[in-house]
Amino acid sequence: MKINTTMWKTLPVIIASALALSACAAPAPETAADAKRLITIATSNDAPFSFTDADGNLTGIDGEMWLEIAKCNNWDTKVFITDFSTLIPSLTAKKADIIVDAMYITDKRKEVINFTEPWYIQGEGVLVPAASTVKTRDDVKGLVLGAQTGTVFADFIATLGGSETKFFDSQAAIIAAVENGQVDAAFTDAAVLAYSLVQKPNDKVKLVSPYTPFFPGLIGAGVRMEDTDILDGVNTCLAELKTSGKYLEILKKYGLSEDNVSK
């Protein structure tokens, strides 16, 4: 039998060509530049700022802004939930990379952590029993006053001349304290109160309205002093978000308005 020598000579070339084509068709391996960085955000999980919904998805004013910023930076997000009073200790202990939870930018806090550029402006509200005649801050003198532990309002109520001050761990606890008569007036984030009462109407309490906040505070995200790369990334994408229609859309979705826009 005669062997076709031409076929045997060309077979290696055919195999090599097929291997080359196969290599070209294979997807390129992910490089370090392509990989998403995982950023852990710390939140006390209080609506309407930064909280997880029934399906475990991050939402809220700060939550939705963060998701836009994370997408802009090509970051993945992990949520770490803790009490508001332990947000800063959790950050400095490296349990999280950034605080995303309607935190007021204050000089005292800036001694411990860095803050991003302001995300928006938000002031305090006053919650009182439905039959209360309180209309201004002057009217709370001599009354029992309440606030949430770890917030700027915890220090603020001590300046208002109340007969006693009491502190609570959550917004729900504050509302319950006013409802059951533990306190005569509670000071906390106006947006939180408004959102809470919309979600769960309560005819035993009311928000003082109209009301002019004592300090319409600037809200920002907090990072560790050394994490300048995270700080720069957030600030760059926050600036882009503010020039888009999405920024005001998020504010209005949760009951805020142009008055809450930070420059």
- Binned strand content: 15-25%
Low-confidence stretches: 1-26
Largest sheet: 6 strands, mixed
Can you tell me the overall shape? Answer: globular
- The string of secondary-structure elements, in order, is HEEEHEHEHEEEEHEHEHEEHH
In the residues, how many domains can be counted? 2
Helix/strand structural class: alpha/beta
**C-alpha Rg, in Å?**
27 Å
Overview of the molecule:
The N terminus is likely disordered. Helix 2 crosses helix 8. Strands 1, 4, 5, 6, 7 and 13 form a six-stranded mixed beta sheet that branches. A five-stranded mixed beta sheet has the order 10-9-11-8-12. The longest helix is centred in the first third of the chain and has 21 residues. It is 35% helix and 23% strand. It has two domains: 127 residues, 3-Layer(aba) Sandwich (D-Maltodextrin-Binding Protein, domain 2), CATH 3.40.190.10; 84 residues, Periplasmic binding protein-like II (D-Maltodextrin-Binding Protein, domain 2). By secondary structure, it is an alpha/beta fold. InterPro entries: Solute-binding_3/MltF_N. Keywords: Signal. It holds the Pfam family SBP_bac_3. This is Polar amino acid transport system substrate-binding protein.
